[in-house]
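re: ur question from yesterday

yeah so i grabbed the chain u mentioned. its 102 aa long if i counted rite. heres the sequnce exactly as i have it in my notes:
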Amino acid sequence: MASSVLPIRDLIARARLTQRELADRGEAIDDEWSYINDLDAAWAERLSAVAERRGDEPADPPILAAIDEAIAETEAIVDPHRAIDWLSTFPQVVLLALGETG
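ran it thru and got these structure tokens back, copy pasting raw so excuse formatting
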């Protein structure tokens, strides 16, 4: 579990590592390599924009708990098809936990 106070920038950095791990698992499906990397890059850009804008804000404990739970969920994924599904879902969960829209 993460500490009780973490800057949003650091929380997003953790989320980006988790997202990259999902992409790595999904790359086991050779036909999806380009799609996976395009998807990973698009979400990385979106998450980086939030980190740039809100990076110094502290992430409250409920936000940390929600994102920790999502990270734990991704760690249980071994099927590359499911990893690809979560590659598009996980960043949205992170953004929702942070109260981001659009």
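noticed a couple things. The chain has one domain: 6-97. also DSSP finds four helices and two strands in the chain.
anyway ttyl
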